[in-house]
Amino acid sequence: MREIERIRESVEKGRIASIYLWHGEERFLIQEGLKVLKSFYFMRDPSGSGIEVLDSKELSPAEIVERANTMSFFANRLVVVDEAPYFQEGQTTDLEPFIEYFSNPNPATCLLFVAESVHRGRKLYKALSRAKAGEILEFSVPKRPQEWLAWVQAELNARGKAMDAKVASQFIEWAGHQTGVLSQELDKLVAFVGDRSKITMSDVKTITTRTIEASIFNLLDAVADRSSAKAVKTLREVLLEEHPLKVLTLMVRQVRLLLGCDALRKRGGNLAEVPSVLGIKPYEAQKLWQQSSKLATKQLSEGLAECLKTDVAMKSGGGDPGFLLEMMIIRFCGGESVT
Prior knowledge:
GO molecular function: DNA binding; DNA-directed DNA polymerase activity
Domain DNA polymerase III delta N-terminal: 20-130
EC number: 2.7.7.7
Domain DNA polymerase III delta subunit-like C-terminal: 213-332
Strand content: 5-15%
Pfam families: DNA_pol3_delta, DNA_pol3_delta_C
CATH class of the largest domain: Alpha Beta
């Protein structure tokens, strides 16, 4: 998020670092950042001849340094080393050529390393972090709900559109928590509303593709409210898009996580512990924690048992899968009230 703004600012000012290390799990954001960085070189040479992407599996560090030091007819060059393994634990490759280069890089070349993960204790990482001409950027996905809202608002601003916070929250809940998917869904909304600057809830409901995870959350909300009719209606909508076994698999996962939240709450735990204890993301933890407070332990336990019975019935030809799921949901809604 802010990393892309830093890159954009560097491009606008023409102050590109001689050496970059971009790392993080969010590949989409890295690719967006790369588009911004490449724009600097395309402005100077529309053919893109000054941009070179190297394969770290085919070239040694010494050969990569040689490429970075190569002079050409182009005033500026961008050399990208994708999927760079050099900053990870357990590397046995001779990295001295890189360390020497960091102390005296070619000012006409931007050498960019792209890595999914890094070990900050590695000698190479420390050498780059100390290099005057080097810059390290970590591309991480938003974690908290407010961070996701801020990301969506920033993307909307870049597209010249606006969305109320309530609408943005609904949009994120429906479209999921993958920046690439959210970006595509925003592009669809922008095309749909045309010249209109504000995107409404009606627009989101009309255009946005709801993820199966969001539908499962809604399904369990209906179960928590003891609304069999609403739960079955939601289930039927999901089954129009997804295979019954996939729906059941996600139901089992969700109920197990809800039981985990319930157990954690009973032993005096809190929301902050949920992500590490259950191995899930913070945004999912918050929703599960809230949802688990509406469902009694007995209802969740019996619901899990119903899920497992239904799984056996579906896999042994015990009836129409859709009908079996509907019966399971109806029995799930019939649990005891939360006290």
